[in-house]
Amino acid sequence: MNDQEVGEYWNRNAPAxxxxxxxxYDVYRNYLNTPAFFAWLPPVAGLAGLDIGCGEGYNxxxxxxxxxxxxxxxxxxxFVEAAQQAEATEPLGIRYLVGSAAALPFADASFDFAxxxxxxxxxPDPPLALREAFRVLKPGGFLQFSISHPCFTTxxxxxxxxxxxxxxxxxxxxxxxxxxxxxxxxIFHAAPAQEQARHAPFRVPVFNLIMSQWVNAIVAAGxxxxxxxxxxxxxxxxxxxxFLRKARVVPYFLHLRCRKPSx
Length: 263
Known about the structure:
One of its GO terms (biological process) is methylation. By secondary structure, this protein is an alpha/beta fold. It has helices at 3-22, 27-40, 58-65, 77-89, 126-136, 193-197, 211-220, 235-240; strands at residues 48-52, 69-74, 95-98, 111-117, 137-148, 156-161, 167-173, 182-186, 202-206, 224-229, 253-259.
């Protein structure tokens, strides 16, 4: 499966995804993953930044509000159209383009930094996407990205619950079994049943790299791996949003920041 074929899947997902996400049902993004990502992000005010795989632009808009001069792209035209509509409603100076992470339509050394929110694990060739990000960054620039945690997002996964129905462990398997774009169906479980019934499940092609492949791809692209974090909900977050409790058992997400050497 190539990136354009993957883009067709996401273009079909985009209308339902945009509707449900903007209604507040992407709770892991809104209340755990994105807050942790931005709390960890270096200062970006006044810098030229690229958002790779921007979707409908939720995180892109947060990035622009931090004072960055943002360009964003996504392979799905329907996502880009939704993001452009939001920009027209509330102008933040964001430029949105249709494009592929595998062939970024920018000159070498165009950006001070790049981000990618939950995108790179969904592209057919993550090492190529990392090389492209490296190419368009200025020396000394950084790439910070989030992905599904490779150790716990595996071909076999099952939540284990105690007698009270509380999650206490996750059963995983097939860690080394690479999936070549087999589509996985799911929808935001926080959405009420009537909302879920109004939309077809998302169909998402799966390309699962193991942890060592991610690290080796970062290094092979020329980056220096600077830091990693695994967001974990606090007691306060779980009290406010009980749905997050499962993400306290094992990490759902992995954040990595890497930097292009100055010399």
